[in-house]
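Q: I have 172 residues here and want to know how they pack in 3D. Can you give me a structure?
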Amino acid sequence: MQTRRSLELNGIELPGNLRGRSIHIKVIPTVCNLKNMLIKLEEVNGDYSQLKQWEKRSYKAYQIEKIKPALLKASPLERKLLIKQHILNEDPNDLGASCIDIYLVAYVAETFGPGKERFFRYIKESGISDEANTAQAIWQVGKGDGVYLDLLHDDGPIKDWEFFRRWIQGLN
């Protein structure tokens, strides 16, 4: 049963797509979290060619190339703010699985209920995948990156409602 918690508590309804970008297609990430990719990017002085394949996928999902010079000069806190603003500036259709998985985790937690078990059930019921490993990858990356960016709570619900309102409405 849908709880529609987000609408009841915050006046924001999370749509089943993000400004035309399906949250059910191209959502399976390579397991690499944003924080680790950024640390590695700093270690290699921004040299994309030195990133591992899974780090490159995270890099591409977030379109990091567009903000790399600013990221490399920023403090860890400033990086989070830069990435959040960058996400808001981009068309969701241009963002890869890792980034969209943040929205997917929030959508499930706020619409159907929080937690990993409920999320896994949604992944299966919605037809995204029958595989537990796939659900785990989406959960791990979406929740992990969302928590890292201070957008989600640890069990999936939204922490930063203003960010999600702006993301849904296309306000940057």
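Q: Anything worth noting?
A: Strands lie at 17-18, 21-22. The first strand starts at residue 17 and ends at 18.
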